[in-house]
Write a structure and sequence with these properties.
This protein is mainly beta. It has a single domain, classed as Porin (Beta Barrel). Helix content is about 5%, strand content about 60%. The protein has one helix and 16 strands. A twelve-stranded antiparallel beta barrel has the order 1-2-3-5-6-7-8-10-11-14-15-16. The longest helix is centred in the first third of the chain and has 11 residues.
């Protein structure tokens, strides 16, 4: 009986990750995940949208490798631009897992390299001019009814072509979720999520001097939903700012939204 219940948790609960944060979910060996993300955000007059194709492959049952292929649209209130964004390569390794009756806990590490391959158009709002690296640690608790995740990520932002040492960032995510009605694998399944997302940014520097209008802190409350039917899933959520302390009157975020369509093969 324990084996059967553990299998149910592995096929239903472990297919879930937060909308904005990260979770320890990895694919089965030789499995593929194809996902299409639609993203939008606004900060006063600045607007950004993106379509992102994510392809992930399960190297083993605990180790996955993937690539992000974005197409971006940006408007800063003066200039607008659209084109291919920065290709990113990522890997996630689940180094710990514990199964019990109707419950699974796990933890994973993430490494992501964000290239400098965005389109260099006449209005270069897409081009950042440097490769960045993200490392992260995540924990997940997933049962038939309750979920919780916690993660922290550190983004190292390099020095761009203009000689600006772009400030590094830390991302903190705390997430709780509930499945109101437990269902079987063959039935449609709905999980409701609530995330707390924090972003802490250092000031950028140029020539050893800090740039005043950079860096700061933003916190978001992010309600979301995860709907699945067998190997197909839809995730959606919106980030609502609840605390903002950006240096020197920067344009604070008005909202961010994301919808993700996932297909496991």
């Amino acid at each position: 009986m324990l084996t059967v219940l553990t299998s149910v948790v592995s096929t239903t609960a472990m297919a879930h990750d937060p909308v904005f944060g990260i979770g320890p979910h990895v694919l089965f060996k030789n499995g593929f995940e194809i996902a299409l993300e639609v993203e939008a955000e606004k900060a006063v007059d600045e607007k950004e949208q993106a379509l992102v194709l994510d392809i992930t492959y399960g190297l083993t049952g605990d180790w996955a490798l993937g690539v992000d292929l974005p197409y971006e649209f940006k408007n800063d209130g003066i200039n607008s631009d659209n084109g291919n964004g920065d290709l990113a390569i990522f890997t996630k390794y689940r180094f710990w897992r514990r199964d019990s009756l109707g419950l699974q806990e796990s933890a994973a590490i993430l490494v992501k390299v964000i290239s400098d391959t965005a389109a260099d158009n006449k209005t270069p709002t897409l081009k950042k001019g440097v490769t960045d690296t993200v490392i992260g640690l995540t924990y997940g608790y997933e049962s038939r009814r309750w979920y919780r995740w916690a993660s922290v990520r550190y983004r190292n932002n390099g020095i761009n072509d203009a000689g600006i040492d772009r400030g590094d960032q830390i991302f903190i995510d705390l997430v709780g979720a509930i499945r109101l009605t437990p269902t079987g694998y063959l039935e449609p399944d709905t999980v409701w999520m609530l995330e707390l997302n924090g972003e802490l940014g250092e000031r950028s520097e140029f020539g050893g001097e800090e740039l005043t209008k950079t860096g700061g802190v933003e916190w978001f409350i992010s309600p979301g939903i995860f709907w699945t039917k067998r190997n197909f899933a839809i995730k959606a959520g919106i980030q609502i700012p609840v605390a903002q302390n950006l240096n020197y009157n920067q344009d604070a975020s008005s909202y961010r939204a994301r919808v993700i369509f996932e297909w496991h093969l």
